[in-house]
Amino acid sequence: MSFQHNQPLANQRLSSQSMAFVLAGGRGSRLKELTDRRAKPAVYFGGTSRIIDFALSNAYNSGIRKMAIATQYKAHSLIRHVQRGWSFFRAERNEYLDILPASQRVDETKWYMGTADAVAQNIDIVEDYNVRYVVVLAGDHIYKMDYEIMLRQHVETGADVTIGCLTVPREEASAFGVMAVDEAGQVTAFLEKPADPPGMPGDPDNSLCSMGIYVFDWQFLRELLIRDAEDPNSSHDFGNDLIPEIVKYGKAMAHKFSESCVKTGLETEPYWRDVGTIDAFWQANIDLTEFTPKLDLYDNAWPIWTYAEIVPPAKFIHDEDGRRGSAVSSLVSGNCIVSGSEVRNSLIFTGGRAHSWSSLDHVVALPYVDIGRSARLTRCVIDRGVHMPPELVVGEDPDEDMKWFRRSEGGIVLITQPMLDRRAAMLD
Prior knowledge:
Spore Coat Polysaccharide Biosynthesis Protein SpsA, Chain A, 29 strands, about 25% strand, nucleotidyltransferase, EC 2.7.7.27, GlgC_bac, nucleotide-binding
């Protein structure tokens, strides 16, 4: 496998010669009912954002002005969010953001058959961008990263592919795709969830694990995709098919996330989270309420762009013993009213209502949740638009919780409106 690498244009950032191809078609089934109506990248996060905003913001802040988002599973919520929040790209400035739903463009019987196939089915669209480099991104992780640094390494090393990698303790690496690398950082083997992960040169206690982020020269990737599409034995997936082939016959280089992660003075270590389970989703949101959170959302130099609703400020009312509107170590978004309710270590998204004598402790309440009077909620995730009945108690009796709601392995209770409706019908 040989390829003549293009030389970057002089005096230009590599990001200006690149496009971001965001893979956002995954269901995220481990999030259970949270993805009944939306794809995982469209799930809310951090009070005002959606998960996909992190990959898109990283690309935009890195200087990439050409992006495509491949969607498939229950994409309406995601498409609507992107149309509302990311419509500021201007074609006359050579800026583009295309949404690419699986639409049987290549074959009337085929949707996207894998991550590589999602790009392959849109080769003609990528060609129209006239770019030298393609940054392939997963749309469902929480992190801040400057892709320009990864692009520079890709060009300087003459790699066929550069793979974004996390440094993970060896005992935890079995849950990932793991890279074995030599002293120069070239990948010598790609192992999917190995029982005995290889350590890193000079650091045997840690392993390099794939982030699902890849940088390619476009002409090289184009030829590879065409060849893969014609292979009936391929699953048409980057991690299963294309990357192992390049490792075997070409030059794959590992890029350490620690070298390009974006940190402020408050962030002491590289931050990356897969919020793909109820427990992980709850924990990552609750972590934001810490005195010094591991992820700084207040960094104006690297903003997380999103669709911002025009709403009034949050309001706190009532000031009497037992009925005081208050929030401690919590994030409360716009258009929320904390009315004689006690909120602790919780995150309330836009439009929340917490009525008198209710209490929230370690609660993640998605947009437009209404908490009835005297309800007591602990360690739970509440889906968008849920109306919690008065005096409901959640998080204190596991057996009672499991009768009506979903309780995770970590003891987090997920509450949706259909669950409450079933409960009300059975108690009626």
